[in-house]
Amino acid sequence: MTKSASTPASTPAPASQDFFTAYDALLARWPAGTAEIEVPTPYGTTRVHAYGPAGAPAVLLLHGGGSTGAVWFANAAALGTHHRVLAVDILGDAGRSVRAGRPLRTSADLMGWLDALLDGLGVRRAALLGHSYGAWIALTYALHATERVDRLVLLDPTQCFAGFRPGFLLRSLPVLVRPRKARVLAYLDRETAGTDTDPDWKRLFALAASECADRKPVVGRRPDARALRAPLLVLLAGRSGAHDPEKVAARAREAVPHARIETLPQLTHYALPTAAPAETNRLVCAFLRPDRADETDRGDETDQGDQGDQGDRGGQSRSR
Q1: Over the Cα atoms of the chain, what is R_g?
Q2: 275 strand-pairing partners
Q3: What is the DSSP string of 172-221?
Q4: Which residues contact 68 (CB under 8 A, 6 or more apart)?
C-alpha cells in the first residue's frame, strides 16, 4: 500500500485480520484497473477506490454505515463506463481510512472533510451517490456546497426525509449493544430475506460491526432538502424495514418537487446496493447521463472541464 509522501505513516482503525481479509476479498471483485488512492485531509487519510476514465465527470460514492467503500463492486463497472468512480471509506467508519489531526465530531467537521477530500482528488464538481447513512451525508453535503454537486442519487436514504420505523430500531438494538458476528449475520439474514444480497458483503458488515471497535460515525440533524438545487434521484427499497418507503417518497416529493423517485419493489434496505445491481445500475446510469436539457432550464452550467485531473492529484495510488 503506497502512502502519500505528505502523510505520516498510519494504520486503519483496530480490526481483526479476518476483517481485512474479507475487505480485500470484496475489493478483488472490482473491475481490473481499479486504483487505490490515499488522500490526506486535515482529519486523517481517506482511502478511495477509483475506477473509470481519469478525465471523465466524477461520481463520488458514499456507503451505508459499516459497509465500506468496497461494497460498490457490482456497480463500479457500469458507472465507470462514462464516469470516474470514486468510492470512499468514510472517515470514522470501518475500512482503511484513518482518523488523525483535527477531531471529526460534528456535521460541520464532516462537511470540511468532504471539502478537503474533493480538493485532494482534484475534483471541483461531482455527482454524489449515497446509500442509507451515506445518503444522509450526500444530501447534507449537496446543501452545504451547492456549487460542487452536479447531481444527487440517494439509495433508500435514512434520516433525510423521514425517521426510522420504531420496529426497525428495536430489531437493531441488540446488534448495536452486543454486535457479535453471528448475531449480526442472523440480523442481516432476516433484514435481507428474499433478496440476493451478497454473502461476502454480509460477512464483511458483520465483521465491521463486531470487530472495528473505534468506529465513530458522525451523525447530525435531518437536512432541510427544500433548498436543494441539484437534480435528484431517490431509489427506494419497496420492502425497506428501516422506514416507510411511501412516506419517504411523499416527503421527498414535497420537499424537492423536481426529484425523480423510483421504487425497487423486491429489495430491502440492506439489500442495496449488492442485490439486483443491474436494475439499480440502469436507473442510476440513465440519471447521471441525461440530455442535459434540464441543466439549461436551471441556468446552471455543468462544469465538466474542471474534472480533468481528478483521482490523481491529492494522494498516491496503485492499480490492480
Answers
A1: 18
A2: none
A3: HHHHHHS--HHHHHHHHHHHTTTS---HHHHHHHHHHHHH-TT------P
A4: 23, 26, 89, 93, 94, 95, 204, 208
Q: How far apart are CA 231 and CA 152, in angstroms?
A: 6
pLDDT digit string (tens) for 257-301? 999 999 999 999 999 999 999 999 999 999 998 754 444 333 333
C-alpha grid cell, residue 143:
446543501
Cell numbers that stand for 201 in this block: 458483503
Show the beta-strand stretches assigned E in the chain. Answer: 35-41, 44-51, 58-62, 84-88, 98-99, 126-131, 149-155, 232-237, 260-264, 316-319
Q: pTM here? A: 0.87
Report the interhelical angle of 181-191 vs 199-211 (nearest 10°): 140
Q: Cα 66–17–193 angle (5° rounding)?
A: 40
Helix (H, G, I), strand (E, B) or coil at 109: helix
